[in-house]
Amino acid sequence: MDLNSKSSSDAARFLAWAGLIVLLVLHLDSWRPKRDLIWFGWMPEELAWRLVWMGLAFLYLIFFCNRIWKED
């Protein structure tokens, strides 16, 4: 193991923890005002928010499986 792989591994672990915290804060969204807005003429704002959150969670899952949870 060389020094560069160790530092990139540490950076990936930091990103994994930071991403988890960001997703948790975005999921527990009591800080966000609930409004009755319609996006694109048909989608309620709450549904759009949840769809964006699920997209971010999916990207996080791909990152986590590729960079952190490696099999030997």
Structure description:
This protein is mainly alpha-helical and 72 residues long. It has a domain of 37 residues. It is 68% helix and 6% strand. It is built from 2 helices and 2 strands. The chain has a two-stranded antiparallel ribbon with strand order 1-2. The protein is elongated.
Summarize the structure.
The chain is mainly alpha-helical and 72 residues long.
Q: Can you give the mean pLDDT?
A: 85
What is the CA-atom radius of gyration, in angstroms? 17 Å
Unreliable residue runs: none
In N-to-C order, the SSE pattern is HEEH
**What share of the residues lie within helices?**
55-70%
Report the structural category: mainly alpha
- End-to-end separation in angstroms reads 14 Å
User: How many separate helices?
Assistant: 2
Keywords:
two-stranded antiparallel sheet, mainly alpha, 72 residues, single chain
Secondary structure layout plus pairing:
Layout lengths: L2 H25 L10 E2 L3 E2 H24 L4
Antiparallel strand pairs: 1-2
